[in-house]
Specification:
InterPro entries: Actin-crosslinking, BXL, Fn3-like, GH, Glyco_hydro_3_C, Glyco_hydro_3_C_sf, Glyco_hydro_3_N, Glyco_hydro_3_N_sf. Belongs to the glycosyl hydrolase 3 family. GO terms for molecular function: hydrolase activity. The chain has 958 residues and is α+β, with helices and mostly antiparallel strands. Among the domains are: 291 residues, TIM Barrel; 128 residues, Trefoil (Acidic Fibroblast Growth Factor, subunit A) (Trefoil), CATH 2.80.10; 115 residues, Immunoglobulins (Immunoglobulin-like, Sandwich); 124 residues, Jelly Rolls (Sandwich). It contains 21 helices and 48 strands. Strands 13, 14, 15, 16, 17, 20, 21 and 24 form an eight-stranded antiparallel β-sheet that branches. Helix 4 runs antiparallel to helix 12 and helix 9 packs across helix 10. The N and C termini lie far apart (83 Å). About 1% of the residues have low confidence.
Length: 958
């Protein structure tokens, strides 16, 4: 007889039915265990162990060799949804193929990152696509579609969006709170997540480390009120690593870990990433929370049901019918197709910032390739291991159109002397560049080795080792031995030439030189300790040990080598930029937009020797380079482009490919244009291309071509709820090229502050010379043209005139069309009937949004630390015949007050003392009469003094 399969094994049943049946067969202990990232196997039911979380931001990461595509911000620069979907598909295929031989490779993919790049100094700038929510949503939708696959039931991988919500800063990232006003939330933050979720290609989200409006993101009520209303799919919420413990730990938001994890589970977190592979602390905390009644069985079951549904979708229970099962034709990594795709992506990511006719390069030239990144193929924290590497120097040397290549890296060469002698790098096996993989593509292969001899000192300068010094800015240096290996500090504290590249969670290859007496202290940045010299060699000083004083002797200037190469060449390519593990990455924000001074000197030296000098910026983020823009005939930018970066750059420079990358974020001219690092209010701070009132160095969407394009008449219309726009774009130049057609919208006379213009749609097209294409856009009118009405807490489209604008960037508009909409007129605030929610202000100064209660609600208080009052303005309040009184709901840990004023009037309406209420959540109502009550339609100003947490104002009628 054939054994009867239980329902959860029946592929004919729905995912919901199968997950429900399987859940019912699990014990409470088995269910609790599944809530940790590393869920154990349940052998009696045939369930294997399961791990949530596989990094795959621009290729499969951390699991060995895999195709490395350009950084996410570089993928954003392609503005090409179709390309990004193919990259997602390739990444998903590689994850499946790698899992077939390595069970550590997961199919719950934590990618992409959709946090918006509103501030170019943020450390995690490299992980996002763009500063614009619609572009970000479109590219994230494409990437997740590729990761998910197109099978109606089974998923290739299960993508999880990062990081919910309003995150990307690294300073105090687990304790800092982001103020997110309703308009920024609904118009800017949520759309980036909503697009891919509604497309049905997302399995879940990961909350961010930070707090929003005073509440940890892992307790966000928006998981329930927004996220899970966008789709019928049972979205899985995976915590970020260590974040569950932060709730009662660094954030001190709940008094115990049991209460913190219980609150996260109730809010909607399903999978707890904490304590590495050790699930016991998490399971014990949740078990205790259940016993104490902090959570119910229903909370556990809801989370486990969502996790089981995801696992069933991944084919875990159907290996015979899963279309993505290994052996079904999915290729492994490093196939010809994936290599070609990596090259195509790197080519499309190159942005031509300026060109005064220097590019494309004529064939047969002698090219000097110089600069600190001229022979580098850098990886970042979320990269896989390179199966191939191509540097700018490689690419131009191999290009048939280049007659001769000269090279000068531009590092300064130095010797170090101390009281005991000259620093020497002993010869070792590391110098041969060997290793267990037989190659040199894994930058971390030798890092941390303690079997290599440490640096020593010798008696004479002749025996001293020459080191290559690079100053990355901010006093951060790297030192490289003559064999190409970086000085690194291993766990035993000794300095060795043992790293092929800087890297790691804590970078062990960075140092600082600090002036001290008649020399310098050499301080290791990773440990913060100065270097000392012992009989066994150089190592970081222990507690109480005296630091060594070093004298630095420069034996060769990098500027001299660069100038010499530049003078001997027909054209010079200076390659500058950042190392993605230094000065701007996860764990560290940047402090300035400026290019490091050493790199400034290099391009200046090259240009002084040869006027035909271009600057190629290879970086994870924008720079402010106004002097280079003014002086040089050509500038380009590309993010770190992965395994094919050098070949791609050479093909663009030599004209095989016309550049068509477009900037995914604004490049500002200097630091003064930037808002505060933790200011997420783009409306109030007038930031990003949407609101920035100044002149950027390069605007959002900017990018030049070797060809030229004509934009025909733009026509627009409205049919029901659908907005349509059409135009013809023609290649009027001599080169076949891509053009990125950008469609923007703007309100002609808005009643509230609206963006200068905002991206409505985009299309990357390829045109041969002399050919044109008719392009049409079909868009949901309300979504594209509307905004969040804070007075009535709704999405609205105002009546009036709107302009649709087509162009080559946000500040290069070529054609526009008018639309007049009926819309919904904005009604005044009905304050007598509904009062005023404090968080629903129109303008603010010196305030912060905070949590009304631990589980939901917002309040407003003066910004902490300044000691100054906070100010709120509510526009167009309808007071009718005038209220009799004002009723204020607030909490205060100390005495404070709230003053009501009519803007522009000398005297206040009333000042209400708010005595201490006994805690930040201990709300009370304070009421006062309004003898001089406002009447009719007017604006209201509220001034808060002291630690008052204002929730709302009500105005009882007469």
């Amino acid at each position: 007889m054939t054994a009867v399969q239980p329902p959860y094994r029946d592929p004919q049943l729905s995912i919901e039915e199968r997950a429900t049946d399987l859940l019912g067969r699990l014990t409470t202990e088995e269910r609790l265990a599944m809530l940790h990232q590393f869920a154990p196997a349940v052998e009696r039911l045939g369930l294997p162990a399961f791990r949530t979380g596989q990094e795959a931001l621009h290729g499969v990461a951390w699991m060995g060799p895999a195709t490395v595509f350009p950084q996410a911000v570089g993928l954003g620069a392609t503005w090409n949804d179709e390309l990004i979907e193919r990259i997602g598909e390739a990444t998903g295929r590689e994850a499946r193929a790698m899992r077939a031989t390595d069970p550590r490779v997961g199919l719950n993919v934590w990618s992409p990152t959709v946090n918006l790049l509103r501030h170019p100094l943020w450390g995690r700038n490299e992980e996002g696509y763009a500063e614009d929510p619609r572009l970000t949503a479109a590219l994230a939708t494409a990437f997740t579609r590729g990761l998910r696959g197109d099978h109606p039931v089974h998923w290739r991988t299960a993508p999880v969006l990062k990081h919910w919500l309003a995150h990307n800063h690294e300073r105090d990232r687990d304790t800092a709170s982001t103020s997110l006003r309703p308009r920024v939330l609904h118009e800017y933050e949520l759309p980036a997540f909503r697009g891919p979720v509604r497309a049905g290609s997302v399995a879940g989200v990961m909350p961010a480390y930070n707090l929003v409006n005073g509440r940890p993101n892992h307790l966000s009520p928006l998981l329930r009120t927004e996220l899970r209303t966008w789709t019928e799919l049972p979205l899985v919420v995976c915590s970020d690593a260590g974040a569950p413990s932060n709730i009662a730990g660094s954030e001190r938001y709940h008094p115990s870990h049991e209460e913190g994890l219980a609150a996260a589970l109730r809010a909607g977190v399903d999978s707890f990433t904490d304590h590495g592979e050790d699930s016991s602390p998490t399971v014990e905390r949740l078990r205790t929370a259940l016993e104490r009644g902090l959570i119910g069985q229903e909370h556990i079951d809801a989370a486990v049901h969502r996790l089981l549904a995801m696992r069933i979708r991944l084919g875990e229970l159907d290996p015979d019918t899963d279309p993505y099962t290994p052996g079904g034709g999915d290729p492994a990594h490093d196939t010809p197709g994936h290599r070609a795709l990596a090259l195509e992506a790197a080519e499309q990511a190159v942005v031509l910032l300026k060109n005064d006719g220097l590019l494309p390069l004529a064939p047969g030239l002698t090219v000097a390739v110089v600069g600190l990144l001229s022979d580098e193929c850098k990886l970042d924290w979320y990269s896989g291991s390179l199966p191939h590497r191509s540097t700018p120097l490689d690419g131009l040397r191999e290009h048939p159109g280049v007659a001769r290549v000269l090279h000068a890296e531009g590092t300064d060469r130095v010797r170090l002397r101390c009281s005991r002698g000259w620093v020497t790098v002993p010869e070792s096996d590391a110098a041969a560049g060997g290793g267990e993989d037989g190659g040199a593509l894994d930058p971390a292969l030798l890092r941390g080795r303690t079997d290599l001899p440490p640096l020593t000192v010798s008696g004479t300068e002749r025996e001293a080792s020459e080191l290559h010094l690079v100053d990355w800015g901010g006093g951060v240096l790297t030192l490289r031995a003559g064999d190409g290996h970086y000085l690194s500090v291993a766990d035993d504290g000794y300095l060795r030439a043992s790293a092929r590249q800087p890297g790691g969670w804590v970078v062990q290859e960075t140092f600082g030189l600090e002036p001290h007496t008649d020399g310098h202290l050499l301080r290791h940045r990773g440990s913060g300790r100065p270097v000392t010299v012992t009989a066994d060699g150089l190592r970081t000083a222990g507690d109480g040990e005296e630091a060594e004083v070093f004298t630095v002797t420069v034996t060769a200037r990098g500027t001299d080598a660069v100038a010499e190469a530049a003078a001997a060449a027909d054209v010079v390519v200076v390659v500058a930029g950042n190392d993605p593990h230094i000065n701007g990455r996860e764990t560290e924000d940047r402090t300035t937009l400026a290019l490091p001074e050493q790199q400034e000197r290099l391009w200046r030296a090259a240009h002084a020797a040869n006027g035909r000098t271009m600057l190629v910026l290879t970086s994870s983020y924008p720079y402010a380079v106004p002097r280079a823009h003014e002086a040089l005939p050509a500038l380009l930018w590309t993010a770190h482009g992965g395994q094919a970066a050098g070949t791609a750059l050479a093909r663009v420079l030599c004209g095989d490919v016309s550049p068509a990358g477009r900037l995914p974020q604004t490049w500002y001219a200097d630091d003064a244009a930037l808002p505060g690092l933790l200011d997420y209010d783009i409306i109030g701070s007038r930031s990003t291309y949407l609101y920035f009132d100044g002149t950027p160095l390069y605007p959002f969407g900017h990018g030049l071509s070797y060809s030229s394009f004509a934009y025909g008449e733009l026509t627009a219309g409205l049919e029901g709820d659908t907005l349509t726009a059409e135009l013809t774009v023609t290649n009027t130049g001599e080169h076949a090229a891509d053009e990125v057609v950008q469609l923007y919208a703007r309100a002609a006379e808005p009643s509230v502050p609206r963006p200068h213009r905002w991206l409505a749609a985009h299309r990357r097209i390829h045109l041969a010379p002399g050919t044109g294409r008719r392009i049409s856009f079909t868009l949901p009118a309300a979504e594209v043209l509307g905004f969040w009405d804070v007075a009535h807490e709704r999405w609205v489209v105002e009546p009036g005139r709107y302009l649709l604008q087509a162009g080559a960037s946000s500040r290069d508009i070529r054609s526009e069309a008018d639309l007049v909409l009926d819309g919904v007129p904005l009604a005044p605030r009905p304050v007598l009937q509904h009062g005023l929610a404090a968080a629903g202000y129109d303008e603010q100064e010196g305030t912060a949004l905070v949590d009304r209660a631990r589980d939901s609600g917002d309040a407003v208080r003066p910004a902490p630390g300044g000691g100054r009052p906070g100010r709120l303005v509510f526009r167009r309040c309808d007071f009718g015949d005038g209220p009799a009184a004002v009723r204020l709901e607030a909490a205060a840990e100390e005495d404070g007050e709230a003053e009501l004023r009519l803007p522009g009037q000398e005297h206040s309406l009333v000042t209400l003392p708010v005595p201490a209420t006994g805690g930040r959540y201990a709300h009370r109502v304070v009421e006062a009469p309004l003898p001089k009550a406002p009447r009719g339609l007017c604006d209201l100003e509220v001034v808060l003094r002291g630690p008052v947490r204002l929730v709302r104002l009500d105005f009882p009628a007469r």
